[in-house]
Amino acid sequence: MILIRFLIISICSLYIIRSLVRIFLPMLFQNVVNKAQEQARQQQNYYQQQQQPRPDGKIRIDHMPEQRKSSVPDSEGEFVDYEEIK
Length: 86
Known about the structure:
Blueprint: H1 2-50
């Protein structure tokens, strides 16, 4: 008797859960897809604002790397003496 009652309750609860998942899972996925689309749209707008048309022949430098000074003076460069062998 207890086994039959357990089976009936478990089958009914699984049926209810399955029905709820069929209803709410598509809503959840639609919400996630909408958020991803909105995020992609915002990112695309941001990149389009960054890309401004430049006049021909103009150069724009955004970043200049630091000039490193070597510890060896130019007069004491890395020159290696060699003799040409024929």
